[in-house]
Design goal:
Helix content: 25-40%
Order of helices and strands: HEHEEHEEEEHHHHEEEEE
Distance between the termini: 33 Å
Strand content: 25-35%
Number of helices: 7
Bound molecules: biotin
Radius of gyration: 18 Å
Shape: globular
Number of strands: 12
Structural class: alpha+beta
């Protein structure tokens, strides 16, 4: 698959720094190691199969071989950490662009980091920051379910997991999805600071959580409210029952619609 991806990217600035793994524990974990070892901005890691794919909040991300795109990209943005609050949202928009370019389907975004279509999760994003010397490095990790059928997911997630093939009813070319994703992240990175306002406007257009009644889960604590918007730092703006309005950072929070996953 690596050669197919390289062929599609032709003269792309990042084409010479794509690392392919038939099997790895987690591309995000390896990307962080490579960041510490001095790997350059725009280093791309792609795996056919992850044995320890990781998601947010310590969850795992099922990453079987032959059916998905599991990718991490190392960025060395020239800015302070507090200017990167919107990075996960920007990556989500770029991932929607990549899926749309490669399949014709534009997924929605469930705040903060899930790509969804018809109540099914198609992809997840895990953004991790590491400080190397005095520089901030960001690893953006994206896992996209491409070719799975319903029976390919384990029973615990079968009710709400989906794939691009299930959503489009078509065969999905993983190399096209991967090549479009690399290019979309490249473009996202180019406008990460200067294009922040426009990116967040697009995020709000894609985000299906806005306008919904939501349950916010932090450990054992559950709070119910209404999602009003997402601010330019990626926080969910929620009105609670006592009419107070809070900007909730994704940190340790998981969001559920009142009636299940969405
Ligand atoms: C989530 O669903 O909470 C995020 C899932 C992120 C999965 C991707 S797959 C590539 C990269 N490597 C990992 O271990 N995780 C991310």
């Amino acid at each position: 698959m690596l050669m197919e991806i390289q062929k599609k990217l032709q003269e792309h600035p990042w084409v010479g720094q794509i690392h392919w793994f038939d099997e790895i524990d987690s591309t995000n974990t390896r990307a962080k190691e490579m960041a510490l070892a001095g790997a350059p901005h725009g280093t791309v890691l792609i795996a056919d199969h992850q044995t320890g794919g990781r998601g947010r909040l310590g969850r795992s991300f099922q990453s079987p071989g032959g059916v998905g795109v599991y990718m991490s990209i190392l960025l060395r943005p020239n800015c302070a950490m507090d200017q990167l609050m919107h990075l996960t949202c920007a990556t989500a928009v770029a991932s929607c662009d990549a899926v749309e370019h490669s399949t014709g389907l534009r997924p929605g975004i469930k705040w903060t980091n899930d790509l969804v279509h018809e109540k099914r999760k198609l992809a997840g994003i895990l953004t991790e920051l590491v400080i190397v010397g005095n520089q901030v490095c960001a690893v953006v990790g994206i896992g996209i379910n491409c070719c799975q059928g319903p029976d390919d997911f384990s029973e615990d997630i079968r009710g709400f997991a989906g794939s691009l093939a299930m959503s489009t009813g078509k065969t999905v070319d993983r190399a096209s999805v991967a090549a479009c994703l690399i290019d979309a992240i490249f473009r996202m990175d180019e406008g990460l600071i200067s294009g922040k306002t426009a990116m967040m406007e697009q995020y709000r257009r894609d985000c299906i959580t806005i306008g919904q009644d939501v349950s916010l889960l932090r450990g054992d604590e559950v709070r119910h409210g209404h999602a009003l918007s997402v601010d330019n730092d990626g926080a969910l703006v929620v009105r609670f029952g006592d009419d107070s309005v809070e900007h909730v950072q994704s940190g340790e929070i998981s969001v559920r619609g009142m009636y299940g996953y969405l």
